[in-house]
Amino acid sequence: MAERRGLWIGTYTPGSVPAGSGAGIHRVLLDTGTGELSGGDPAAAVEGASFLAAHPRGGLLYAVSELDAGRVTGFAVDGARAPAEAGSAPTGGGSPCHVAVHPAGRHIITANYADGSVGVHRLDAAGVPGTPQVLTHSGSGPVADRQERPHAHSTAVAPGGAHLLIADLGTDELRCHAFDPRAPEPAGPASTAARLAPGTGPRHMAVHPSGHIFVAGELDARVHVLRWDPATATAAAVAAVPAGAEAGDHPSEIALSDDGARLYVANRGSDTIAAFAVADGGADLRPLGHVPAGGAWPRHFTLIGDLVVVAAQHDGVLAVLRVDPHSGVPADTGHRLAVPDPACVLAAW
């Protein structure tokens, strides 16, 4: 049944790093029947709102500010009403590019790209983030202009829920911390869950119910499949496939369909969305096809039912694709909406 769904769009702003022309968080409506987009007006002024996350219990929205001195801000949200700022905190590092809410709902986790640190913020009763426990790292990789030091790009909860994973683009690692949300400092000592091939540049992750982890390599343009071992808190590489149409692509977002049967990856460069069938119980990926993303530099996308809403950063538009239920491959609906420098799409109300 068709409905109008609300979306929050995070954008780069004049004061962010990099700079953009957005206003922070913008508000958009999506018609799930036609794929038509409307709105796009600013909803909350946040510098460099490059990544957003919603609390699993609803009513709370979080946005990083991608600045030299990073911050994360919490907002109270109620349907389509403008988000009301609840409070903010430093992220403990520079240029935060990702925020996630831990499933237990007691913490948010921010990834600081500039120095590779990660902030674990306890939430107070109103959902306001506090001063973080800061997780640091050292190391480098072979790509001189991108891997001169650690660059934390995203976090995810490992299969089983007992560990926090950090995709470090700078060191070609999945870093790992045991995580106890009841503890005063929930993240335990650091370990290495996986070392990927030099020059991989792990960016974002998708965790499959089978216990496999799919990792988008921003620098090697491949999707890496790893099998998680909860007994050792390590992940072994079992497969890798090209992420898209061109070897020089720079994959960005990676996401599973609701049933876990298909995986989608956005590729900047060829500006495509690639579709894969999840095979062998999660241990392999079978390419289904890749299609134009609807705009230049697809930095992020979200799946809403059979729709893919893409943030094409360099064209300043949102584009909507619809997944064919039989082939699993998206096709362009033709619907576009101008939003300046979009960086993140989050399904809202």
Describe the structure in your own words:
With 349 residues, the chain is mainly beta. The protein has two domains: 1-41 and 296-349, no CATH class; 42-295, YVTN repeat-like/Quinoprotein amine dehydrogenase (Methylamine Dehydrogenase, Chain H, 7 Propeller). Helix content is 0%, strand content 54%. It contains no helices and 28 strands. The chain has strands at 4-11, 24-31, 37-45, 52-54, 60-65, 71-76, 84-90, 96-101, 107-112, 118-122, 133-135, 152-157, 163-168, 173-179, 187-195, 202-207, 212-217, 222-229, 234-242, 250-256, 262-268, 272-279, 284-292, 298-304, 307-312, 317-323, 330-338, 342-347. The strands form seven sheets. Strands 3-2-1-28 form a four-stranded antiparallel beta sheet, with no helix packed on it. A hairpin with a 5-residue loop joins β8 (96-101) and β9 (107-112).
Question: Which CATH-level-2 architecture of the largest domain?
Answer: 7 Propeller
* DSSP strand count: 28
User: What structural class do the secondary elements suggest?
Assistant: mainly beta
Number of helical segments with 4 or more residues: 0
Write the CATH homologous superfamily of the largest domain: YVTN repeat-like/Quinoprotein amine dehydrogenase
Layout: helices, strands, pairs:
Layout: E1 4-11, E2 24-31, E3 37-45, E4 52-54, E5 60-65, E6 71-76, E7 84-90, E8 96-101, E9 107-112, E10 118-122, E11 133-135, E12 152-157, E13 163-168, E14 173-179, E15 187-195, E16 202-207, E17 212-217, E18 222-229, E19 234-242, E20 250-256, E21 262-268, E22 272-279, E23 284-292, E24 298-304, E25 307-312, E26 317-323, E27 330-338, E28 342-347
